Structures are given as C-alpha cells and as structure tokens.
Amino acid sequence: GQTVDVTLSRMGATIDPSSRTVKIEAEVDNAEGQLRAGMSGRALIEDEISAELRRPTEQAEG
Q1: How many domains does the chain have?
Q2: Is 1 part of any domain?
Q3: Is the residue at 36 inside a domain?
Q4: N-terminal to C-terminal alpha carbon distance within the chain
C-alpha cells in the first residue's frame, strides 16, 4: 500500500450502517501522476486529538 496525504473537502451526511462507510470528496496532490481516474482505496481520517492520543507516552509527556 501507499500513504497519500489529502485535504478533505466534503463528507457525506450519513454513514451506511451495513458497510460502515461514508462517502467523501478529497483534494490530493497528484503531480507525479501516480493516482488515476477510477482508482479506489481505504482511508483513515485523523484529527489532531486522535493523532495526539496515538503518540507514544514518552513523546506525549515531553
């Protein structure tokens, strides 16, 4: 897999309860042309709070 940083521009109003998915629209820098039309993927959306909670203890205390 590959990690790509994106900017979330729109998010669906509802979550599909059976698939536990939500539609999003995101902006991505594709200057190198690695992403092509029709490609799909999985996303992990982090905010500042969840990123802080996942940080190792010694970093969070420092």
Answers
A1: 1
A2: no
A3: yes
A4: 32
β-partners of residue 6 are: 28
Which range of residues forms the domain containing residue 44?
A: 6-61
- Taking the C-alpha atoms of residue 42 and residue 5, their distance in angstroms, rounded to an integer, is 12
Contact 12, 22 (CB under 8 A): yes
Task: Write down the mean pLDDT value for the chain.
Answer: 80
What local confidence, expressed as pLDDT, does residue 18 receive?
94
Please give the pLDDT value at position 16: 92
Amino acid residing at 18: S
Asked if residue 34 belongs to a domain, the reply is yes
Q: What's the pLDDT band for 62 if we cut at 50, 70, 90?
A: low
